[in-house]
Amino acid sequence: MGKLHHIIIAGGGAAGLELATQLGKKLGKKGLAEITLIDASRTHIWKPLLHEVAAGTLDSSEDELEYLAQARWNHFRYRLGRVVGLDRERKEVLLAPTLDDAGVEIIPERRFCYDTLVFAVGSLSNDFGIPGVQQHCLFLDSTEQAERFQQNLLNSMLRAHTQDRPIEPGQLDVAIVGAGATGVELAAQLHHVTRLVSAYGLDTIDPAKDIRMHIVEAGPNILPALPLSLSNAVMRELNRLGVAVHVNQRVVEVSERGIVSASGIVIPAAIKVWAAGIKAPAFLKDIAGLETNRMDQLVVRRTLQCTRDDDIFAIGDCAACPMDEMGNNVPPRAQAAHQQASILSRTLARRIRDKPPLEYTYTDFGSLVALGKYSTVGNLMGGIAGSMMISGLIARLVYLMLYKMHQAALYGWPRAVLITLLHFLRRGIDPQVKLH
What we know:
With 436 residues, the chain is an alpha/beta fold. It folds into 3 domains: 5-123 and 280-351, FAD/NAD(P)-binding domain; 133-274, FAD/NAD(P)-binding domain (3-Layer(bba) Sandwich); 366-426, no CATH class. It is built from 12 helices and 27 strands. The protein has helices spanning 14-28, 50-55, 60-63, 67-74, 133-136, 143-162, 181-199, 207-210, 228-241, 334-351, 392-411, 413-426; strands at 5-10, 33-39, 43-44, 65-66, 77-80, 82-87, 92-96, 98-99, 105-107, 110-113, 116-119, 124-125, 174-177, 213-216, 244-246, 251-254, 258-261, 266-268, 271-274, 278-279, 298-299, 305-306, 309-314, 319-320, 366-371, 375-382, 386-391. The strands form 9 sheets. Strands 5-2-1-11-23-22 form a 6-stranded mixed β-sheet. It has a 4-stranded parallel β-sheet with strand order 15-14-13-19. A 3-stranded antiparallel β-sheet has the order 6-7-10, with no helix packed on it. α1 packs parallel to α10 and α11 packs across α12 (413-426). It is globular and about 75 Å long.
């Protein structure tokens, strides 16, 4: 028997993990190909949930998935490591050494050979080179960062609760730069959480008086991906909650004291979160001569193949994939990652049979924004009905269904339903917010 075709998937986010799972079932189980997933983390959590982890309304340990277990169940291999280099001539990927928390090497530098390589390494926050962002802002690119934010928030409230002096103005204020879905959803969740924590015993803190939430947006409207009518509806809800929204305020500097805008306004905040834009990981920039754009995304054709190498594909946020004839690219959304993983699993199954790749066409199913327990709004896109605006309970159910579809892609519908039931049953015994 000849050597099996080896498919390496770099990145275990929504796109990469769904692809590895599908290929494992299709090809790995039947011995038609060898599938290897590489990721720097040991566990996976759906990235759109990170704002809930940051707020403390979601315990990541309950919703995270173990890569090793998923690989065992679905007939692919998982390798712990971070891809940092590529040798296209030898068809090898280079992994950096893996270190423990003390900086001691656990796994040395390694190289893996591939026949087909898929980059699915996602995206990171883009600080646009603005002074002070890296030093003074928190980010929500990973579970670790989200948990760090939650700890900082809880520690600041504990400190304020036990200090022997009055709470100073701005001591507990939070400023979120970027009014996209992540920033808006985080602000609403934090409004709810700060009131819960106070109710759990930190009663010397008056959330309505001592904690102010700010959202800072460079553009004229929040949630630019949504129709203006929905954006305005969310703005009214944020105003009702007391969240201060600052539009047309381009950030030029971040200091320990707060956020400085181009118009000279200083927004004081003890905790600052950056959610103002994304870019691909920096190691991708012109990697091994592949074409990248100004956001360090790999430029791909409609087949999801890199423009300069037919054996290398890219999907998800790290890929610049054409969407239309006007030069627009597919937006970095979870639904796009899901669609690309599905089409690429079919392409790679055809590839080992020497059949041509399929072309990907983006289908927009709409956008939804959940404001915690307060509201959910969005629009659903339909081929016949056009765009339908939804809100309230229906919108909330549709929002939850997006996550259930991701779980079903990884576990199958029976297990996804069981996980949902277990989560519902735990609500009666767990606190509404993570307190440690």
